[in-house]
Amino acid sequence: xxxxxxxxxxxxxxxxxxxxxxxxxxxxxxxxxxxxxxxxxxxxxxxxxxxxxxxxxxxxxxxxxxxxxxxxxxxxxxxxxxxxxxxxxxxxxxxxxxxxxxxxxxxxxxxxxxxxxxxxxxxxxxxxxxxxxxxxxxxxxxxxxxxxxxxxxxxxxxxxxxxxxxxxxxxxxxxxxxxxxxxxxxxxxxxxxxxxxxxxxxxxxxxxxxxxxxxxxxxxxxxxxxxxxxxxxxxxxxxxxxxxxxxxxxxxxxxxxxxxxxxxxxxxxxxxx
Length: 273
Description:
The chain is an alpha/beta fold. The protein has one domain: TIM Barrel, CATH 3.20.20. About 35% of the residues lie in helices and about 15% in strands. The chain has nine helices and ten strands. It has helices at about 15-25, 45-55, 80-100, 115-130, 155-165, 175-180, 190-200, 235-240, 265-270, and strands at about 5, 30, 65, 105, 140, 170-175, 205-210, 210, 225, 250. Strand 5, helix 5 and strand 6 form a beta-alpha-beta unit. It is globular and about 45 Å long. It starts with a strand and ends with a helix.
């Protein structure tokens, strides 16, 4: 079965995310476990966790993916920011365990002018700090769009991080908008072949399926609706490449009054038909 869905709101009660996802005919979904724009987090009581895991049963939604908040920067050399970032990661790992989350996606962050290699060293050290935490969920590192000082926009950087950590508890989440913005023309099978050789698609466990508002190699992280951006019909090549269609795919696209709720999922399914 094709596993495709949206990033879903957990407003009011976390378990309501399943109701919203099922209404949109999602077969997978992504959520935030804490407020994405602050360092604050609340403890999850047993009743709320039980309601979430109970609602999952029979929902048909699998896997369930969580995304780290935006503020942590695991590639930073600044001691206080590093400390807060690792603490946030530990909090989200523990929440993932309570809720039975399958994958926890995290941005690789910015080296803040200290250089790519230093950024890679920092994120490897950050991940190593949490590897001893008992967890069933896998950590997925997300590629970046090639913004200034960002870490992880190249397949070789992702591969270097994986090799340095050396753990099967780590995988990757590829964002199609970020790939395109970083200069990977995913409309071209030859480019996909090179990506597969450099990283290995077996390490990719989830896809953020987003069109790109700006052109190839722009370095700009600006999502567009599927078929409304620069990738457009080129998604057919990407979606039908090797094992891509077997990955869990999550749309993080903006509201568009021209599209009915859930319509983008139908667009993707047609591209695969």
